[in-house]
Amino acid sequence: MTYAVPGPIRTNIVSSTSVGGIDSPFTRTRAVLDMMKSWEIMKAVSEGTDYLRQNSEAFLPLEPREDYDAYLARVNRAVFSPFTQRLIRAATGLVLRKPITLTGDPYWTEMFKMDVDGCKSDLDGQSHILVDYPAPSGAVSLAEERAQDRRPYWIEVDPTNLYGWRLDRESNYGNLIQVRLAEKAVLPDGQFGEKVFDQIRVIEPGRYRVFRKKEQIEEMYDVADNSVTGDFEMGSADKDYKQVESGNFSLGEIPLVTIYSGKTENLVSKPPLLDIAYLN
User: How many degrees, rounded to 5, is the angle at CA 271 between CA 266 and CA 274?
Assistant: First the structure.
């Protein structure tokens, strides 16, 4: 669903969007679509005046018989009071008033906590966290791996990039058996440019697959002369996407951890400041 009204101004607010059918990895599940409605409201009050003006048709609709030039002037004068932003900052300060601590091996408590993602990020924030590990390099011992600085690292996953999941019925729906994550593939284009492509990574215990739209694959890879890397598979002719990469890993579970407040069920929550956002 896209909020919009007729007129030259378009809104980019999307509260519930699904792409493809039930067999497409690009389809968002119902639980995600339901949460997106609340996320959109929180995004609006968090980003403030610029977001209000960019999506004026949703928040400042054209009044009956209002001249369009007068409407644009009203939009350009509109401001958004940052009450919810201030509450979010205050609440974050309360949650993190004490530093996060780790116990156990000093390797993790002293070194890893200062660089959890390989980009010098420390332990802070809230979201989904995917734990990944570099590809095998031939190290034969833990000491050799540490000497090569090969260790697990964390990848922050924005909740809007989690398209869907499946839970194990045998464990009373407590264990993940599949997740689908939206990603951006950035490739060089010419000497200084770049191309950005959307893709979906499907992770299951012990294996992963990457899907991309067919027309994007044709731009990124010259399949005819086999100038590609990885394990690539071609999809069927009646689908608008293809599996472009797959692989295995030794972990027998999905290394995704969710940190949230207002939890209603596994991987589902309600923004704790949603009622304040409505007032804002």
Answer: 150
SS3 content of the chain, % helix, strand, coil (to 5): 30, 25, 45
Q: Where are the alpha helices (DSSP H) in 116-193?
A: 142-147
pTM above 0.85, yes or no: no
Residue 15 has pLDDT above 50, yes or no: no
Q: What is the pLDDT of residue 233?
A: 42
Q: What are phi and psi of 61, to 5 degrees?
A: -65, 155
Side chain identity at 40, as an amino acid letter? Answer: E
**Distance from C-alpha of 91 to C-alpha of 97, rounded to nearest angstrom:** 10
E strands, the chain, in order: 128-132, 153-157, 162-167, 176-189, 193-204, 207-213, 241-248, 256-258, 263-265, 268-269
